[in-house]
Amino acid sequence: MISYLSELNSLSESINKAMEEYNIAKPTIYVGEPTDPSYGDFTTNAAFIISKTFKISPYEAAKDLLYKIKVSKEDISGEAHPSGFINFKLTDSFYLKFLNEIIKNKGYGEINISEKKRIIIEHTSVNPNKALHVGHARNVILGDTLYRLFKRLGHQVTVLNYIDDTGVQVADLIVGFKYLGYSLESNDKYDHYCGDVVYVNANKAIEESAELKNKRSEVLRDLEKGGEIYRFARPIIEKIVREQLKSTWKLGARYDLLNWESHFVHGGYWKKMFDLLKEKGLVKFVTEGKHKNCWVLLDKKVLVRSDGTAVYIAKDLTYAAWKLGLIPDDFYYYAFATQPDGTKLYSTSLTGNLKSLYTPADEAYILIDQRQLPLQNLIKETLKALSATKEYKVIAYGLVALSKSTAEKIAKSKIEKDIVHMSGRSGIYYNLDDLMSAIQQVALKLINERNPTLSEKEEVASKVAIAAIRYSLMRPDLDKQIVFDINEALKLEGDTGPYIQYTYARASKILEKANMEVSLLDQLILSEEEKQLLLQMAKYDYYIFKAYFSTSVTSLANYAHELASAFNVFYEKKRVLDEQDETLRKMRLALVYAYKLIIADVMNVLGLPELKEL
RNA sequence: GGGCCCGUAGCUCAGCCAGGAUAGAGCGUCGGCCUCCGGAGCCGAAGGUCGCGGGUUCGAAUCCCGCCGGGCCCGCCA
Fold it and tell me: How large is the ipTM?
C-alpha cells in the first residue's frame, strides 16, 4: 500500500544513503513530520550535521545534500530552506496513486507487521462483587482498543478476563448474604445491587464486629478449599459476572476466556509454580531475621508465610506464568456465553471434556492501574528469569478519580479535597452503566431536537454514548490521572467521539444521495482542503504503527480527530453533489468515498460505532 | 526514610520517548457563517515566564541535576 509511511520510509532510506557520501561517522538524523505543516509533509535536519562537520552554512549543506538525495521526483518534491532544513512535499501524482489504491482495495487493506505473534491480553479483571465504575471502564477500553489494534496488524490475539472469586471482596459479599440476611434476589441490576447495597453495608458491619471478622475468615478459607460456602457463592458470583459482562459488551468489548482464581487454587497450580520457582532457585527459604521461616522471591518479597500459606502475589505470578505456558494448562473448557459479536466466550473448568483450547502466548499484556506497577514489575522480572523468549508486558495507566463536584453529588455532602478517589467499599464511585444511560439521555434529547424523524433513536443514542465514553477515556496519555466530572462527560461537541461519528454520517449521506459507483480517477485537481484531507488519510498506517510500537492509543485517537477535522473543513468549503464540473464532482465523490472507508477503519480499531445517521 | 507518575492558555489536554524553524487542539469568552450535500459543524479574535532554578548543546517544553506543588506505591493484607 502506498501511503505517507511508505514514502517516509523510502525517503528516509534515500537520505541516509546520500549521507554516506559525506563519510560522517554514525550520523543520527531526523526524517519525519515538520513542526509546522506549512513547511511541508516531511522534513530532515540532516544538513545541520553536514554543516557542523564541514564548517559550511546549513543552507549550503542543505542544497548540496538535496542534490545527492535520490528520491522519486514523481511522488515527492524537495526544497532546501534557508534555515538549513530540507522540506519535502507529496505531489499530486502521489495522491492520485494513493486515492486509486484505496478505491481499488475498498480501503487500506491489510496493514501487516512482519513478525506475527501469539498475543494474550488480560483486561477488565474486576472483583466479582460489584458493578463496574468509570475507573474500571478505563481498563476495559484501553484493553479492548489494544486488542483491536493487535488484530488489525494481523496478530493472533486472545483476550482474558480474570475473575478473583476467592478474595476478601467476595468474602465480604458472601458474609452479607449468609449472616446479615440480605436477600439473594433484587429487582435492580444484580451487580449494582450487590455492590451498592450488600457489599458496602456488609463491609461496614464487618469492620465493626470481631465476630463477623471471624465469619469472613471462615468464608475465605472455604472459598480457598472449595467447600460448602464456595458452592453457595458460586452461582451468586456467576450472576454478577454476567451482569458485569453486559456492561463491558455495551462498550463494545469482547473476551475469549474467563479465568477463575478458584480454578487455579483448586487445580493445584500454585504448587506447580512453587516447585518451578524452587527448581530455578528464584525463591529462598529464610532461616533467620524478620523473614524467618518464609520463602522469599528474588530476595525482595515474601511469597510464602512462615505458616506455609502463600501471599496474594503468588496467585498473580502463577496466572502470569500460565499465560506464557511456563506451567502446563490442565484446564477443561466450556462455552460460558455467546457475545454480541457472535463469538463464544469460554470459561475454564476443572471437569469436562473440552481441552487445550488455549495456546500459550509469546507475549502476555496486562492492563493495570499505576498502583499495581511495583508488584507487576516483580512478576515481570521473575518471568524473565524463567524464560528468555517469552515476554510479559505491563501496561499501567493513571487512576480515574472524581472531581470535587461529582464526588459531592454522590456523597451528598460537602467535600474538602479537589479530587476524590473512588472506593467500592465506601460507596464513592460513578458506575459505568449510569454514565452510559446519562449520556444516552443527552444524546436522545439532541436527536429529538435536531432529527426527530430518525428511526431507532435509542439505539443511535446508545452508540453515541459508547463513542463519547471510549474516546474520552482512551484519549488522555496513559501516565495521566483522569479527573472524571459528570458535567464534562455529558458534553458531546468538539474533541469527542461523537464529532468523529458525525463526519462518518456526513460522508454516508453524500454517498447515499449520489447513488453511483465510484470509479478510478485519471487526474486530480486539488484545492488546499482536499490535499489536506488526502494527506491525513494517507497517514493512517503511520499512526497504526506508532500506536503499536508505543502500546498507546493516545496518538491514534488524536489522529482520528485530525482526520475527521480535515473532512469537516473540506465539507464546509467544497460542494460535492451540486458541483457543476463533472471531473471535480467525480473526484470529490471519490474523496468522500475513500474518507468513509478510512474513518470506518480507524473507528473500528478505536471501537467507536459507525452511524450512518444521527 | 525509599521509589513511581504528573505539572504546557481561565479549564481539559496533545506535543516530550528519537532536542531544531512563529509551542498546538478542545471547552469557555468575544465576533462572524444555515436561499447551501445535516450547524453534534466551519471561520476569526483574545488568551501561554511550557511549575521554579541550574547544567549539557550552535539550539531545550523535549535530555541531565536540584528544588517546589499535586497524585500514588513501599505488609508474613488482598
Answer: 0.96
